[in-house]
Design a protein that fits this description.
The chain is about 30% helix and about 50% strand. Strands 2-1-6-5-4-3 form a 6-stranded mixed sheet. It is built from 3 helices and 6 strands. With about 110 residues, it is α+β, with helices and mostly antiparallel strands.
């Protein structure tokens, strides 16, 4: 499988693992020096990401990828997420790869839907 298809699958697997509450799978996808940024978090490290951004209990009913583009070591993803309480929202994310792992994620919050 070429790099682009492999990265596309990695991105899809990331969201599937998040939905399935599989922190172990996500941990294996990230580099040791992984960083995460969003309007709420500025370049937090891997440990802080799992502490702040990983739900303590299942939160989502579904996450649908609406757009996914790969360009070299970067991916752009637009998705719609539906929470268990019925609320939904859309976000964009920029992911950067190093080798076969995700080195960083930047989240751009969308609106509630």
């Amino acid at each position: 499988m070429n790099d682009m298809r492999t990265r596309q699958q990695t991105v899809r697997d990331l969201y599937a693992a998040y939905l399935e509450d599989r922190k172990d799978i996500v941990g294996a996808m990230l580099t040791e020096d992984f960083s995460f940024s969003s309007p709420r978090d500025d370049h937090i490290d891997r440990a802080a990401y799992f502490e702040r951004c990983w739900p303590k209990q299942p939160l989502f009913r579904r996450i649908d990828i609406e757009f996914l583009a790969i360009d070299g070591n970067e991916a752009a993803v637009r998705y719609r997420a539906e929470k268990l309480d019925g609320a939904s929202f859309g976000n964009m994310e920029s992911l950067r790869f190093r080798g076969g792992k995700i080195a960083s994620v930047e989240v751009y919050f969308g609106r509630d839907l």
